[in-house]
User: What shape does this take?
Amino acid sequence: MTTSAIERNNPAILIVGASRGLGQAMGAEFAGRGWRVLGTVRAPGTPLHGLAAEHPDADAVEVETLDMTDPDQILAVRDRLSGRAFDIVFVNGGVANRTPQATLAEVSAEEFVHVMATNVLGVMRAEEAFGPLTRPGGVIGVMSSGQGSVANNANGVNDLYRASKAALNQAMASYAGRHAGEGPALVLMAPGWIRTDLGGANAPFGVEEAMPQIVDVLIAQQGETGLRYLDRNGRAVPW
Ligand SMILES: NC(=O)c1ccc[n+]([C@@H]2O[C@H](COP(=O)([O-])OP(=O)(O)OC[C@H]3O[C@@H](n4cnc5c(N)ncnc54)[C@H](OP(=O)(O)O)[C@@H]3O)[C@@H](O)[C@H]2O)c1
Assistant: This one.
């Protein structure tokens, strides 16, 4: 990692889980707007590496290695980023359950633990570790889902995934309560159903049309305080 990224005045974002899909697209959108991007991945050779390699400014897109489910890796990355500051810290990574039609009673214990350990425990550990790197007036964001809304759950399906995102929302509400009256702004993002490996080919929206809106919403939250559960149009999602 170079120091030039620290010294430059451009705003900066840390994206946890940026290898591909929405995380990589978020990195590309912010980089395209002149932001400095530090994204984390779990493996070499990802689309984020491609973005970093193709960007004309060699320091514009940096890549760190992190599996959110490994607390030692979180601590190691936090130590490496000591002294860095970001205008936005966004924890994006997440997984879906492999058996969307299964009720919670039907999923295996292994799958339950995998989804919950990633989407709730891993995300909140990353959020707690990297949130303090956010500059005053900045934003801490977490990728939730409209499927995390209890109020909007009329017909089930994706029971485990829904439960994980609802638990994540609840955990962020607890975090917000502990930091009441302080900045940065806290955002739970419900991006809509978008074509990615996780969203699948039948999703109605592509990342190209959705990501600029998501980024607009995050940028608009700068200077705010408190927790908001927002869709990519900036509308409040019922809890
Ligand atoms: N697409 C949608 O329709 C939609 C809708 C609502 C919410 N979301 C949420 O948006 C986020 C991104 O989803 P996506 O659609 O972009 O899915 P995706 O293409 O499958 O990408 C998932 C991302 O999460 C990362 N990840 C998974 N487990 C991780 C871990 N243990 N540690 C670090 N990173 C991890 C993946 O990294 P690897 O490449 O290493 O696997 C990848 O970068 C998720 O939180 C998802 O729940 C998506």
Observations:
- Residues 19 and 200 are 17 Å apart (CA to CA).
- The two ends are 40 Å apart (CA to CA).
